[in-house]
Design a protein that fits this description.
alpha+beta
């Protein structure tokens, strides 16, 4: 497969595509066993910078940031309350009261004993934190889906990786652009949004989970 890709790139360069920009790359992700490998076939988009797209993208990011800010604040507040509830519980345990209660099983967590209000406070605080995180996650997913539609609508080029995770995009006009890819693997999504400055040459790249990228729609 690599030899076929190399031959294709050579043909593109010889045919004059070297006057425009070309991308050659691959996607590698961590698998269940810890090794790296290609994900299922993944769409790779190149979106050129244009006044229309740049305005639409900036407006969408600004709307997301405005909507996510109070939810992030709520997550932080709920996290502090959860941590404080656990500290209160830990102090009660460390004081020796738990040791005294251990001789009376009816007073252990979940019963109607002395420590029940403290443990209930921990559970309630953890529940509020989980709810706050879910709200933020849902907003991120919603804005992320809208962003993906915006990128699709403005994509200059769109290809799919092969079974080995390789992709080739040729004949792209030089200039600033974004490379976007979204891979679903097992129980996680991995999204890339990589700023590029395309020139009249071949650019090679590898996308991994450690690749720096500018996807802003994260919790």
């Amino acid at each position: 497969m690599k030899s076929a890709i190399s031959a294709l790139l050579a043909l593109l360069l010889l045919s004059g595509c070297s006057r425009s920009a070309s991308l050659s790359g691959e996607i590698r992700l961590r698998m269940a066993g810890g090794e790296t490998g290609p994900p299922p076939r993944t769409a790779v988009l190149v979106v050129r910078s244009t006044p229309e797209f740049d305005r639409a993208w900036a407006d969408h990011v600004a709307a997301f940031q405005a909507g996510a800010a109070p939810l992030r604040a709520a997550v932080e507040k709920a996290g502090q309350a959860s941590a404080e509830a656990r500290k209160t519980w830990d102090r009660a345990v460390a004081s020796g009261a738990m040791a005294r209660a251990s001789s009376r099983p009816q007073t252990l967590p979940g019963s109607r004993g002395w420590e029940h209000p403290l443990w209930q406070g921990v559970r309630e605080a953890d529940g509020r934190l989980l709810q706050a995180k879910r709200k933020l996650r849902d907003v991120c997913l919603d804005y992320g889906r809208q962003a993906e539609a915006l990128l699709e609508a403005h994509a200059a080029e769109r290809v799919a990786t092969d079974q080995a995770g390789h992709f080739v995009i040729a004949g792209i006009a030089p200039g600033p652009a974004l490379l976007y890819a979204h891979s679903r693997l097992q129980d996680r999504d991995v999204v890339w949004l990589v700023p590029l400055t395309l020139k009249g040459e071949l650019r090679q790249m590898v996308l991994t989970e450690e690749t720096p990228n500018g996807w802003p729609f994260r919790p």
